[in-house]
Amino acid sequence: MAVFSTFAPTSRLSDEILYPTFSRISTPTSEQLKTIRAILLHYESLAGHGWTNVAIISSINEYNLNYANSFIEIAAPEISIRSYQQFLLEQEDISIELNEIKRSDTHVILALVSVDYSLFIAKADEHGLVGENYVWFTTATIAVTPRAADPLMRGTLSAVNYFPSTSHYQECFFEAWRTADPERYPYAGVGLNPTTLTYFPFDAVVTIAKAFDMLDKLELLGQRISPEVWNAVIRSVSFEGLTGDVSYLPNGDRIGAQSLRYYDVEANLFLTAMIREQGELIHVQDVVWFSNTTNIPDLDIRPPFNYWSCEDKEMQTDATNCIKLPL
Fold it and tell me: The pTM is what?
């Protein structure tokens, strides 16, 4: 049986031997992870040491653990995972896990959490892990989920599928959404544009409609169609959708660009800063970091130390980490 998913991003579904008849409209998480890796190396080249030392904290479920393990697999040799902490979904006290990250002296933290993110980041703040010298990454799910504005999230980064600002079907779909009967179509019909959460289902329907059209032209409708034929037809579909140019790899994975987004408190949205397409980073706008500036954070934070001041001819202590000595 052929299976076509509107949203199933876990990387292990890319294995054509285990899942030979599976296709999906969303790109696999491996593409988001490649984007995070590219972003870390990019900022390391601009701002120096600290950007490639990473801590991971994850609530325990299949998606988050796959995300974390997949990132660990592609991180080396340039990126070092200094701490990897896990906690149960029902676990309220995560002090041990946060203290371990604090002890790792890592200032880039990948948060893979399926809990209220505002509550989570408030706990991290209580442990001194939020500030101008910390950079937090989170999942696309957190980035596209509506929330109340949260100043502690300012500058949080996320790799998300890139959606163009305009597309072939946008005007038609938006008008249909705004004027739909809200009793038949919950969340629609109140005069507002749809969220990006609706884009994948829309493009999935268009993919299947085009697949049926191909099968009709081949005079195959009305009879049993093998999974192999379904695979070939679905994976040959190509069109301009709400989620960008839609096309598929031979294993059923979606081909698509990724974006780096940052959380803007005033807009209460994750805004696009960069696009990663065909392995290249394209600058859109500067990130506004936790400092509320576009100055790239200095993550090369080292413990206080004593040193001899030639100018003052006495021992002094650097407690501000402003003086950088070789590691």
Answer: 0.84
